[in-house]
Amino acid sequence: MTSAVLRQIPNLITVARVLLVIPTAWCLVAAQYDKALALMAVAGASDAVDGWLARHFNWVSRFGTALDPLADKILVGVLFIVLTVAGALPLWVAGIAIGRDLVILGGAGAYRALFKHIEFAPTLLSKANTAVQFSVLLLLLLGLCDFRYLSEIAQSITNPYGFWVVAALAIASGADYVITWSRRSVAEHKALP
Q1: What's the pLDDT tens digit per position in 79-108?
Q2: Which ranges constitute the DSSP H helices of the chain?
Q3: Nearest to 153 by CA among 164, 143, 166
Q4: Among the four residues 43, 104, 135, 171, which has the most C-beta atoms within 10 Å?
Q5: The whole model's pTM is what?
Q6: Residue 70, CB half-sphere, CA atoms under 13 Å: how many?
């Protein structure tokens, strides 16, 4: 394989993660929680693998830098919605998590419209937020499976403690983005001729 083809491996893995959203959501709707759990685990592992490959071999691309966090948010957002509709996740948790992402997306769109450029650089707090969301969703799915004691332990962690942590991190990381990008907007505005 040529070097140019190899450089696309992380992007292909990220695209595959986006495509996993469809069968994962289908399994949740069909109450096939064990299959949804397996697909979610594959998605989480693929996120780690594509990031490692991109950094280790310097296969970083602008496309991958933009798509990787978007792929995570699509998967997590769909899971939040489907699990809330199914009654497995409280509406307030999904509302806070998805609301945070919508505020960030709206802010990024406004920043790009005003200043024509934007850098995709998730903060450490944002990465922690995504990791906790994935973890709590995995535990929630594990709790919905019929794995006896393991499912009971997972349920006791997610409800209510996991839900509180997801909400707190979503609020904290959302506020961090709003403050950081508001400061950048003011600085960019001042720098305009």
Answers
A1: 999 999 999 999 999 999 999 999 998 988
A2: 3-6, 9-19, 21-29, 33-56, 62-85, 91-115, 124-144, 149-157, 163-191
A3: 143
A4: 43
A5: 0.87
A6: 15
